[in-house]
Amino acid sequence: MERRTLAFSLPKFGTSVVMGIADFSLATLYILGYGLAPILGATILALGKITIAASQFFFGWISDQTYVSKWGRRKPYMLILSPLLGISTIFMLLPSLIIPLEDKNLVFIWLLVWYLLFNIGYGVTTPYGSWMAEQFSVDERPKASQWQNLFGMIGTGVMSLFSMLILTGFDEKIEADPTTIPFDFLISVFIFGIIVIALFYVSAFTMPTEPRHEIKTSMLDRLKLLLKNRNYLLVTLMVGLASIAWSIIGSLILLFMEEVLKFGGLLYIPIAAAYLIGILAFLYFWRKMITNIGKKKSLLYIFLLAIIALPFSLLGLLQIGTAFTFIYGLIFILAVAGALGGWYLLPAILYSDLAEDDEKRTGELKAGIYQGFPSIILNIFQAFGLMIMGLILELPNINLIIPATGLDISFGYVLWGPICAAVLIITYFYAKKFIIVDFEWENK
Length: 444
Known about the structure:
Order of helices and strands: HHHHHHHHHHHHHHHHH
Structural class: mainly alpha
CATH architecture of the largest domain: Up-down Bundle
Radius of gyration: 22 Å
Number of helices: 17
Helix content: over 70%
Number of domains: 2
Number of strands: 0
Distance between the termini: 25 Å
CATH topology of the largest domain: Growth Hormone, Chain: A
Largest sheet: none
């Protein structure tokens, strides 16, 4: 791996760790640990989704407009926003360093302020992501995306270990005494906050400044031109539709292993490891597929793999022995990881190529707005997917429908697979008919 690819990929590690903690642990931390009312916690998390959509779009849009001779368009935003992201992570997760936790109004305000600042800081990912179109040629982007996602999945693995080894015990301690800050938790949070800042700075100082592309249109005109790009909008809608399913899959797959297949304790670790390693391995596989057969065929094969694999979640109803369950669970999670590995690889490549395709026609490379605008659509569809997940998990318990299974959990824990497959079937035919992601100029 060349130095430029490494420097570009590194920040993904830090953002994956802190966003993973925010997504998976923040509600538990504040509702169970610090006694915040669930409705207030849910309100703040919903506002966060809106904030992150707006910040990713805004900073991508505005970074197209600015060019500092020494630093280019993207580096200034990385140098300014990454400290906001790192510092807000620390204060968001450690309120007891500053405020009295018995004042629940103050706890609410604290979380609201720092979580919104955290999501504004997360807007740094759009100027950073815009670099793929500006720093890498079309044939280099699959490799760059592979390594970027590799560091992202390593970050997710670190976040998972942090959750299992440190957060679990911390939740129990703060329920007993909210003012308690275990040393391992304190040090971990500070390290994560510092790593986020450090990796963006390493990337900014070691990556070359992107070439200067003259942009003569105004910010508003660029938005109007983007909204007239029919193929771009069709691809963005396709990504949104698919994200309904992917958001459910990502949230439920490990819960499925725990609640349905009963992979707790030592059995949980190899299954979770297989999930992460499977995604990493398939990143490489799908990168080669994109090179050999193109982006659209690869995309359709990714959908087909998920469509075939996901309905097998229903086999979780067959509680017929540990050996069968382990083998079935391992195969199932590797198939799902295979599809997810391909999906994680593609969107960054697609939007970089669409930005370059637009440049071929207009003479302006508007990489920032091309990367930022989809975040609005994506967050709306992801929120919709999570709402569907909530409704699924409100279904009656399995023992009321099929008593012989012995499972006493919602039927949604096995039904999510066919539902997600149905969403992806629709997306498959939509993508096959409407979108263009392989361009004639790529072969020249």
